[in-house]
Amino acid sequence: MSSDLHPSQLHQHLQMYTRAKLSSWCGLALGCGLLFLGATQKPDSKPWILAASVGTLEVGRRHRQTAKLLLESLGDIDRASKLNFQAWARAKTQPTAELALTVGAIDANWKPDNLITDPVEYIQKKQKHVALVGGTGDGKSTFTQYLSSKIGGRVVVYDSDAKPDDWGWIDQADVIGRKGNFKAIDAAMGNDLKTLEELVQLRGEGGDNAIAGRERFLIAEEFPILVDECDNATSWIKRHAKRGRRYKQFICALSQNDTAENFGLQGDKDTLYSCFVLVRLGQFGRDHARAKLKDPQLEQWLKAGGKKRLMVDDCPCELDLSNWGTVATAQPENSTGGSEVREQPKAMNEFEQFILDWGQQHPGEILKAGTLSRATRLFDNMQPDEIRIFFVSMADRGLGEVEGSGDRLGWRWSK
User: How confident is the model at residue 175 (pLDDT cuts 50, 70, 90)?
Assistant: First the structure.
């Protein structure tokens, strides 16, 4: 458990906790002593001594309860003591010496030993789906867009709370359930189950070639709500969890908690951990680093990186646009004995079409996210990272090319 106290409150709470704990033990010892004394005294004085003993024990019990509540507010007592020492040290140290006493501070150049920069490679290697844990503003849209651009397939989103400007990077006809339309989501999930059974039959009869072109990337927002409101939600996640990847039906279920119950898998933690990679964004990633991994330095590293830094299972991850490579599909050998590599065809949405038109009108010029935001209001509700995802996705499909990396990544048209 972590402490929500401000460092300035820690010293006072630690003192109160120590005093309450000491008082509870003193009350217990004194009460027991009075009980023993009362048992050896004359009958006329026993009631007074026993009453005093009971009163002392009650005071000790209340102090014990107070100590318990203070301990809950402090959280990890060792960590609270450390933070209290840091606050004391900062107060006692001159500003010029503060840099020499950075207790618990993180080195700007520090990186975790097990850092991964391409979560898709990790997910594909595990052959799992994604359980995404994150809150509002943690970058769920950015991360799901990143995943879909790498994994491929038609993107379908189930989101009963979607605003008009949410999920702007996909065909809006594939955003199902707006305005709390759970019936539409339930019906679509029922159709997904039928589709999965059809794919099982097709693949059994004709192999992988029989299901080519029917790849889908299914995103279920706020899955605990869908479990409560949609009869098909539990069956949907269980069947896709165990069989979906084999039939190119990738699912990404979103929640604000990483328990099996929140993903409709009551009493079935094995399915959650064996079929899903758990991706934790924002505060959820930092909480996991602190509470589960016991690594405060990793927690600070995650906080310093914003939306680009997250936890993938127990591995820290930093999204790096410069590492995005072209995703190609290898085909069987042709009649000449060679092999062909082709891109899966994919229709452009209105955002990609605007980028393409701009590039063809400005041949040789490099388009940056900031330039694009100023050129049209179409991208007003997008973050620069989300725009750069479009650049890389188009380059992956042979539509132009990217230059630079990270925040300086740009796109230009090339034939």
Answer: very high
**375 and 247 share a domain?**
no
In this structure, are 124 and 230 located in the same domain? yes
User: Phi and psi for 133 in degrees, rounded to 5?
Assistant: -110, 115
Pairing of strands 276-280, 339-342: unpaired
Distance of CA 104 to the CA centre of its chain: 24
Is there a domain that residue 112 lies in? no
Contact (CB, 8 A) for 37 and 114: no
Amino acid identity, residue 164?
Answer: P
Q: Which of 72, 90, 108 is the last residue of a domain?
A: 90
Question: Would residue 72 count as lying in a domain?
Answer: yes
Strand partners, 333: 339
Rounded Cα distance, 133 and 281, in Å = 6
Name residue, tokens 């599909």: 329
Q: What is the pLDDT, as a whole number, of residue 14?
A: 61
Helix/strand number for the chain, H first, E second: 14, 12
Q: Which residues span the domain enclosing 29?
A: 7-90
What's the distance, CA 94 to chain centroid? Answer: 40
For a pLDDT cut of 90, what percent of the chain falls above it?
Answer: 32
Residue 108 lies inside a defined structural domain of this protein = no
- Report the distance separating Cα 27 and Cα 35, nearest Å: 12
Indicate if 312 and 164 belong to the same structural domain.
Answer: yes
Question: CB under 8 Å, gap of 24 or more: what pairs does 266-272 form?
Answer: 268/238, 271/238, 271/241, 271/242, 272/131
**Same structural domain, 191 and 74:** no
**Phi/psi at 392 (nearest 5 deg)?**
-70, -40
pLDDT at 239 over 70: yes
Is 99 domain-assigned?
no
Nearest to 234 by CA among 204, 274, 192, 200: 192
